Design the sequence.
């Protein structure tokens, strides 16, 4: 995805974050449904990337198209995407797909909220997605059936369901989407992409901490409490001892890094002196 | 003109060399100092205190 599109996607994901605590599979299915509409209508895709239309105009167009068929929330999300800037029609579809999958992933995450950590629900979802891909990879007939252009989407979804009788509802929604609407790539590849999204979300619950020597119990407790307060959630804290830091501490949660290591300070110093 | 640009290049190269030398030295000294367990723990404690202060500030 090019710069302008990935910026729009980041904005959309940030806005979506506020809705994720109340995420439902219905909302995800509606978003996947809207994706189907966008993918099947060349006219709509052209209108959505027409530079002569304003963002508000595009948003209104989408809302009018889906209005009455989906919840106000889904229409709102799709309308928001339509009003953003996209380098290509493919990108807006990809973004919608990512948002819908993120909603499913959030449902899995929220399931484990009772234990105050989203890890267990996300792990279960990832495992289900991996076993689905393994089941497909080990059976040539299934692969053929899933890539058969004549077969209906419903038949493919039925087959996918049979491959994973014990899987969670969330996994079934994602694998069903991947086989019914793979959008030009192999269904297993799309499933792997969904699993990656889930794994990335799981990283938000894990603090990877590097230090030069093991922390004392008190230090560990202070670190855990401090990080939980900073991020507003119960993080799993993994400590690794890495002498290369020379001293100090480095903490990574998801994409964010808090770097108070001596080696990075020395790096800064070096850039200032020798840069 | 040629002399001026050569002088400029020499200054840049010297600056970089001295900078690298200084940083390497600083790294060695700091590294040795932090071989001391207690000192090393203090650096981490300072980070923890910053983290706690930041949270206390945000809570206000």
Sequence:
């Amino acid at each position: 995805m090019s710069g302008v599109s990935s910026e729009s996607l980041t904005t959309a994901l940030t806005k979506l974050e506020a809705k994720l605590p109340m995420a439902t599979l219905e909302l995800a299915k509606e978003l996947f449904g809207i994706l189907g509409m966008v993918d099947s209508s060349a006219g709509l895709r052209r209108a959505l990337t027409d530079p002569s239309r304003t963002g508000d105009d595009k948003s209104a167009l989408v809302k009018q198209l889906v209005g009455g068929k989906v919840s106000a929330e889904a229409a709102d999300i799709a309308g928001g995407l339509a009003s953003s800037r996209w380098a290509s029609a493919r990108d807006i579809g990809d973004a919608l797909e990512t948002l819908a999958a993120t909603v499913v992933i959030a449902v899995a995450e929220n399931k484990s909220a009772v234990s105050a950590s989203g890890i267990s629900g996300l792990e279960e979802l990832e495992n289900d997605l991996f076993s689905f891909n393994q089941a497909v990879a080990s059976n040539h007939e299934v692969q053929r059936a899933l890539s058969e252009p004549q077969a209906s989407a419903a038949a493919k979804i039925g087959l996918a369901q049979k491959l994973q009788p014990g899987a969670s509802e969330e996994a079934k929604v994602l694998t069903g989407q991947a086989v019914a609407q793979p959008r030009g790539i192999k269904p297993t590849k799309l499933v792997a992409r969904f699993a990656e999204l889930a794994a990335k979300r799981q990283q938000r619950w894990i603090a990877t901490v590097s230090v030069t020597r093991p922390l004392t119990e008190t230090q560990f407790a202070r670190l855990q409490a401090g990080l939980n307060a900073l991020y507003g959630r119960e993080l799993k804290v993994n400590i690794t001892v890495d002498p290369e830091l020379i001293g100090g501490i480095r903490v990574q949660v998801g994409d964010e890094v808090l770097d108070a290591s001596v080696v990075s300070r020395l790096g800064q110093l070096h850039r200032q002196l020798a840069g | 003109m040629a002399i001026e640009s050569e002088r400029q290049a020499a200054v840049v190269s010297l600056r970089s060399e001295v900078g690298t030398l200084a940083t390497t030295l600083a790294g060695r000294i700091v590294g040795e100092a932090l071989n001391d367990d207690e000192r090393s723990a203090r650096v981490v404690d300072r980070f923890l205190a910053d983290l706690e202060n930041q949270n206390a500030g945000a809570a206000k």
Q: What stands out?
A: Chain B has one domain: 2-59. Chain B has a mean pLDDT of 89. Residues 2-33 of chain B form the longest helix (32 residues). Helices of chain B lie at 2-33, 37-59.
